[in-house]
Specification:
Blueprint: H1 7-26, H2 31-40, H3 43-56, H4 59-72
């Protein structure tokens, strides 16, 4: 039995799987570490909730928004 994702879910997954490695590269960390950081400091929750707005923004500004959310939740990057 094949299950198809609706377009919105597919677009959301595509954006999140794009932005996590971009976040990792932008902040010079391995992708797995970036995922754990985003999960720990609310970045993934923010992505899940606001992906539609973030994906229309310039990548640079989207990454800054995500970083700001994490920082406000106690995240610190060197």
């Amino acid at each position: 039995m094949e299950t198809k994702l609706d377009k919105q879910t597919s677009d959301k997954i595509s954006f999140i799987t794009f932005i996590i490695p971009e976040f990792a590269a932008g902040y010079k960390m391995p992708v797995q570490e970036a995922y754990r950081y985003l999960k720990q400091y609310g970045g993934l929750e923010f992505l899940d909730k606001h992906w539609r707005a973030l994906h229309t923004d310039n990548k640079y500004w989207a990454l800054l928004d995500i970083f700001d959310v994490c920082r406000k939740n106690g995240g610190y990057l060197r």
